Amino acid sequence: MQLPTYFIPQGFSTFITNLGIKDNTDDFVFIKSDVPCVADGVFTQSLFAGPSVTISRRNLKDAQAQGIIVISKNANVANGKVGIADAEEIIQLVANETGIATNDILIASTGVIGRSYPIEKIRAGLLGIRNKLTAADFDAAARGIMTTDTLPKLAARQIGNAKLVGIAKGVGMIEPNMATLLAFFFTDAAISKDTLPTIFRPIIDKTFNCLSIDTDTSTSDSAVILANGLAGEVEKQEFIYALQEIAHELVLAIAQDGEGATKVIEVTVDSAINYAQAKRVAKAIVNSPLVKTAIYGADPNWGRVAMAIGKCEHDKEINQEKVVIRFDDIQVYPDADSNEKLEQLQKIMHKEKVNIYVSLNVGEASVTVWGCDLSEAYIDINGKYST
User: Fold this and answer.
1) Using CA atoms, how far apart are residues 331 and 27, in angstroms rounded to an integer?
2) Could you list the active site residues?
């Protein structure tokens, strides 16, 4: 989508360019606020987290930031002291050019693991960026952070006099473990540093953290929000609703654009003992290669959903005699198979979005998660990713 100007929060500017990391497309994005922002972020729990994650975690300890650097096609992970030094140098270069304190600049990096930045090209490309900043172009920013994405991911809302915009990237290596891929939110609403995490983190947990493409957690997952307050205070519930809508919209866009994906899978598990159990079961289903491939081929083999539930062996409260499984409004378990029902199920599995519902009937908790099918194209993309 092309973001209308009336959705752009005030006080933000961008510098977006190609520094020679990618071929022919933008690979460097810098988004700056005119004033320091109240900020919050959540990040990957990977033991191989890159310098971009460790530095941004550190710089967010005071709940303040004024700019975000995003480098795409190079994760700068597993590069030892050189990787840390390069990331720190890039922040320092941007700080020198813009006058922003180094500890108010965050950095994110995504792409191939184990390759060093082309630091000489980056140094040269960052000269004079103070004079190259322009009015915020979030459409270009959404394109600039892409790797194997086929489409930019962007959504926006208005809350009173304030605006809220979100951009994200990600189509593979997605099984978030506190955060996701890369997702950034910018608003001119005034939100206190004590309030922002209580809004942001639960929404991330119930949207991006409920997304899975391929069960692999990235080393660079980051989700960050900046609120510069220039539009003044807004009604809290309206802001929560807008942020929830944007996050959900971006999650669906990522699922639709999953590497090699042809269909979105939405799994809702209800009547669980607690939220954690509901999420475990839902993720077991959406992550199952057998479920994914059945949906890709529109094979009405619903038994694979039962298999996936059964893998949750430590959830002893689950009793197969109480479980109900549906695809859309077609109940496939515990009812016996029939040719008519299998034909209906096959039609459902030809849809662009396949909805699976599981009732455990042991409690009151529920969750919805999202993913995509698994096709031959996923293998083709990832068999050639670094070349």
Assistant:
1) 47
2) 180
Tens-digit pLDDT profile for the chain (387 aa)? Answer: 578 778 999 999 999 999 989 888 999 999 999 999 999 999 988 889 999 999 999 999 999 999 999 999 899 999 999 999 999 999 999 999 999 999 999 999 988 899 999 999 999 999 999 999 999 999 999 999 998 888 999 999 999 999 999 999 987 666 766 555 899 999 999 999 999 999 999 999 999 988 887 777 788 889 999 999 999 999 999 999 999 999 999 999 988 887 778 999 999 999 999 999 999 999 999 999 999 999 999 999 999 999 999 999 999 999 999 999 999 999 999 986 677 888 899 999 999 999 999 999 999 999 999 999 988 877 776 776 665
* Secondary structure (DSSP) of 292-349: HHHHHTT---THHHHHHHHT-TT-TT--TTT-EEEETTEEEESSPP-HHHHHHHHHHT
Are the CB atoms for 187 and 227 separated by under 8 Å? Answer: yes
Domains and CATH numbers, the chain: 5-256 (3.60.70.12), 264-383 (3.10.20.340)
What is the amino acid identity at position 237? Answer: Q
